[in-house]
Amino acid sequence: MKTKAKIARSAVLMIVAVVVLAGCNESLDDLNRYVESVKNRPADPIPPIPSVKTYTPYEYEGLTGRDPFRLSITDDMNTAQAKNAGGPQPDFDRAREYLERHELDTLSMVGTFKKEDFFWTLIRDREGEVHRVEVGNYMGKNHGRVSSISDTDVSLSELVSDGAGGWLVREASIALGGG
Length: 179
Description:
Blueprint: H1 2-23, H2 29-40, H3 74-84, E1 108-115, E2 118-124, E3 130-133, E4 138-139, E5 144-149, E6 153-161, E7 167-175
Antiparallel strand pairs: 1-2, 2-3, 4-5, 5-6, 6-7
């Protein structure tokens, strides 16, 4: 029984194949005429190659002036360092807090809560972990210390190097739902 079914199936497949192949035996005259007409069309002209611009070398003549990679006046630098020595300075001896590993733009404020007289904000880091932060905690890579917390944002004071050995105070904030 199984062999008769296989033979019948094979016969049907062969008949279908013959019918399909018979349909492919159409004349290719239309295609051949189209190909000949395309070949007989005049070719579009090729645009000329653009002229090559000659290279004009630039000769640096700054060897007689000051070196742009060195400080020009070291006395002014020492004066600026002495002036900034009494200004704000980060505390390099304190233990770094977890959120100081992250840039401020990778942190987002997701909420606040208050219990008795304590007010906290909830900060989500880039890994999705939520941390409880209060005034006085540090966040961000620029020694940012939380100065105030409101329902809509958390404000920080960051210490940024001024490039002359001193530090500048820069205010920053993270808005609720933002980064």
